[in-house]
Amino acid sequence: QVQLVESGGGLVQAGGSLRLSCAASGRTFSSYAMGWFRQAPGKEREFVAASSWSPGTSLYANSVKGRFTISRDNAKNTVYLRMNSLKPEDTAVYYCAAPRTPLSAIGVSGEDYDYWGQGTQVTVSS
Questions:
Q1: CA dist list (Å): 120 to 30, 46, 53, 55
Q2: Which end of the chain is less enclosed by CB atoms within 10 A, N or C?
């Protein structure tokens, strides 16, 4: 049973930073892409960032490029999302996600992922 558990969300002022963590269990994730998505109230879920199983390959949404960094520690089965220079529009529930298929290309659509965490709330005050 694959499980993803996010942590690290909270309330932060604009310009501040947070680091989200996603701990995976149920399989070894070194051969799988991992992604972060977010959903703000009244809005559709959107892609934020993803890390390939291939070291050093990542993708970012234009809205977070240069501010957010995705990284992973395969030994700990954990993926991180470092968020700097946070803006009020970054306020959302953040989800990590993983695909069922190993060695797959990075996906930017929610349909590319099969397993989801429960989400962690990030609130950025102005």
A1: 23, 15, 24, 26
A2: N
Cα separations in angstroms, 47 against 1, 67, 92: 24, 15, 12
Residues whose CB is less than 8 angstroms from the CB of residue 118 and which lie 6 or more positions away in sequence, other chains included: 5, 6, 95
> Comparing C-alpha atoms, which of 2, 50, 29, 36 is closest to residue 102?
29
pLDDT digits (tens, 9 = 90+) for 98-126: 999 888 889 999 999 999 999 999 999 99
- Strand 3-7 versus strand 18-25 pairing type: antiparallel
Q: Yes or no: say if 42 and 34 are a contact pair by the CB < 8 Å rule.
A: no
Helix/strand/coil for 23:
strand
Q: For residue 19, what are the β-bridge partners?
A: 82
Q: What is the pLDDT of residues 4-23, one digit of tens each?
A: 999 999 999 999 999 999 99
